[in-house]
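User: Predict the structure for this protein chain, please.
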Amino acid sequence: MTLVGPPRPTPDVSVLLPVRNAVDTLDEALRSVLAQADVRFEVIAVDDGSSDGSSDILADRAREDPRVRVVSTAPRGLVPALETARAAARAPLLARMDADDLMRPGRLATQRATLAEHPDWAVCGGHVRIIPRERLTSGRLRYESWLNSLADADAVERDLFVECPLAHPTWMLRADAVGQVGGYRDAGWPEDHDLLLRLRAAGWRLGTVPEVVHDWRDRPERLSRTHPSYALAAFVRCRVHHLPRLHPRARQGVVVCGAGPVGKTFARALAEVGVPLQAFLDVDPRKIGQQIHGVPVLAHDDVDPIRDFFTVAAVAGVRAREEIRSMLRKRGLVEGVDFVAVG
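Assistant: Here is the predicted structure, written as structure tokens:
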């Protein structure tokens, strides 16, 4: 490992920038970071074995701007690159950035100020605009809309098991909190969601700034679209692994509210990690009275199971999820205590 760039006074923020063959977008990404104002920062760019000219761009930038420090390694992957950057970082705050994205003006200063106002937050994310707009599918637009609907820490934490509720490249993290939980790790599922869940389990809060701070480039070859760690099954394994750790009551058994594809998938995965299934609840009269995974499907208005066991609201879509949340709240259940929504 080689480090290029002179040391400077301790920065307020270290920007962690993993780079692998991003020659077409890297310079613009760096410009967007280096244009940040009102905060003292460094960029730790980890060249993860690039072979396309990215190394030359990084070397040129490091010569021109002492805020850029370059770490060159053999190709090892995203998690080792992030951990390499974290080890080289000198600031108490760590900001994520990807080599094909654009950082909006003022992002670093805004997130730094927000974390100063919330000392119990380990991470502050932000809203995104997915680019390029002309290639956006309806599914990606729905995902962007969901991310940008989460306006505060309560909303982020409420949807923590639905999907990763903060876009990874928008994060600003407390370095000590990340170190406390062991940093990034490769567990065979998404490293970002895994880290958020571990931070929450350690008692830290997860927040956001309710404004667009990042242009997030969506490309067919993006790692989250191609690597098996980001497949649907890996997402489910991640959430199921952490569910009983954040909600210990689930270890005594769960009721799955929703006997459709989402509910069946989560029920199977929960059973595989030793969480006892007690029952399904559903509104479909064709399912009520059947057995799924060896437990009965009961009517949704059967209150005994949800009174006695932790409930997992497992349905697809925002509207259906909100309907189940409303139903469970009307029956006196408290979200995050008696039930959690998954997606």
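The chain has two domains: 2-232, 247-342.
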